[in-house]
Design goal:
Shape: globular
CATH topology: HIT family, subunit A
Number of helices: 3
Strand order of the largest sheet: 1-2-3-5-4
CATH superfamily: HIT-like
Helix content: 25-40%
């Protein structure tokens, strides 16, 4: 696991504006927010990508995310939000530690998403679904 800014925050070497913590999860305000209330949610377990995370840590994040999203919306006054999570350089992951962004939407703020949708072929979709299910 590479040394990251999140490693230093978890060890208390760097300060953060903490909003939540438990035995498995830490949440704090992003210091480069896209919107007021932009919050980062990280596991205490060191893992670069989501697929490397233990079931226990993943479940803990899953329990915390809805509560944190409600709190961010209430505190920021937002009526909508994005939950964003990137895995690997091709997916725009900048900090090599699993993290989720809760980004309140307060109008025309800093998050833009381009979505170049394709079309799933029936036979190809069936084969791909079988391959993914088989990998489980």
């Amino acid at each position: 696991m590479p040394e990251t800014v999140f490693s230093k925050i978890l060890r208390g070497e760097l300060p953060c504006h903490k909003v939540y913590e438990d035995d498995h999860v830490l949440a704090f305000l992003d210091v480069f927010p896209l919107a007021r209330g932009h919050t980062l949610v990280i596991p205490r377990e060191p893992a670069v990508t989501l697929d490397q995370l233990s079931d226990e840590s993943a479940a803990a994040i899953g329990r915390a995310l809805p509560r944190l999203a409600r709190a961010v919306m209430k505190a920021s006054g937002a009526t909508a939000y994005n939950v964003l999570q990137n895995n690997g350089a091709l997916a725009h992951q900048a900090v090599l530690h699993v993290h989720f962004h809760i980004i309140p939407r307060l109008g025309d703020d800093g998050l833009g998403i381009g979505w170049k949708a394709g079309k799933l072929d029936g036979e190809e979709g069936a084969a791909l679904a079988r391959a993914i299910a088989g990998a489980l």
